[in-house]
Structure formats: C-alpha cells, structure tokens
C-alpha cells in the first residue's frame, strides 16, 4: 500500500531507524556525560562556550558515523551494532585527547575555549574518520 507515493514499509523503516538513532544518541549522551569529569549541561547553562563547543563537536562526531551506518545498513541490527561501536570510538577519543592536554576537563570548566575547541575538533575528526571506515 502506498500513501502519496511512499510505501508503508518505507514509513515503518523510517520510524524504526529514527527511533533507534534517537535511542542510540540518548545512550551516547548519557555515557559521555558519565565519563567526562566536567558537568556539560551545567556549564552550557552557565554560558560556558568551551563546554558547548566540546560537547557539540562530540555529539556531531558521534552522529556522523551513525548517519553513515543508517544510510548503508541492511538491517536495523547493523545500525545498533555499529552505533554502539561509534559510542565506543568517541569515548576512546575523549581519553586520547586528554593525553596531550592534561586537565582538559578542568580547563573546560574554567571556560578555556581553546581546550573546548580542541576536544570538539578531535571528536569531530574522529567521527568523520569513523564514518568513512564504516562505509564500504
């Protein structure tokens, strides 16, 4: 059956992927704020640009591979598995970024924009590379 040229199967698939992607994104946010020592949302509410840039870069860095997986997956289970891998990659990136910049979380809490930009940019870069590696 079609509704305005769109099959019900396509609509069901869209809803399933959207719900799955939203759930994976929420899982990512909860894992990320649990792993990072600085309180992202509190800092963002206080207008801390460093925290906002770092968190935004991380969120986009996670979303890029997830979007790539959705575009190339054959089944919803693929999306979930690769989405979990994308979460893991972003968490690893956070720990690697801390090596050359010790105390990066404290710097972000102080509003040091350069630290937030470094974390956000490396998260974004990691997400781009991760997305490319997930797309055969």
Overall description:
With 136 residues, this protein is mainly α. The protein has one domain (2-134). The chain is built from 6 helices and 2 strands; from the N terminus they run ββαααααα. The chain has a two-stranded antiparallel sheet with strand order 1-2. A hairpin with a 2-residue loop joins strand 1 (2-3) and strand 2 (6-7). Helix 4 runs antiparallel to helix 6 (113-134).
Give the key terms.
2 strands; 6 helices; 136 residues; two-stranded antiparallel ribbon; mainly alpha; elongated
Assembly context of the chains: single chain
Ends apart, CA distance between termini: 32 Å
Q: Tell me roughly what share of residues is in helical segments.
A: over 70%
* Order of strands across the main sheet: 1-2
Structural Rg = 17 Å
Q: Helical region count?
A: 6
- How do the helices and strands follow one another from N- to C-terminus? EEHHHHHH
- Overall shape: elongated
State the low-pLDDT regions, or none: none
Structural class, judged by helices and strands? Answer: mainly alpha
DSSP strand tally: 2
């Amino acid at each position: 059956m079609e509704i305005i040229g769109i099959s019900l199967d396509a609509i069901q698939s869209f809803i399933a992927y959207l719900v799955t992607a939203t759930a994976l994104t929420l899982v990512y946010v909860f894992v990320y704020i649990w792993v990072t020592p600085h309180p992202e949302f509190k800092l963002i509410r206080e207008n801390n640009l460093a925290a906002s840039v770092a968190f935004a870069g991380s969120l986009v860095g996670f979303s890029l591979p997830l979007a790539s997986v959705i575009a190339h997956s054959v089944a919803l289970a693929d999306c979930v598995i690769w989405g979990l891998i994308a979460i893991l990659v972003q968490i690893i990136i956070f720990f690697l970024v801390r090596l050359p910049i010790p105390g990066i979380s404290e710097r972000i809490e102080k509003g040091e924009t350069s630290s937030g930009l470094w974390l956000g940019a490396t998260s974004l870069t990691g997400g781009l590379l991760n997305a490319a590696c997930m797309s055969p």
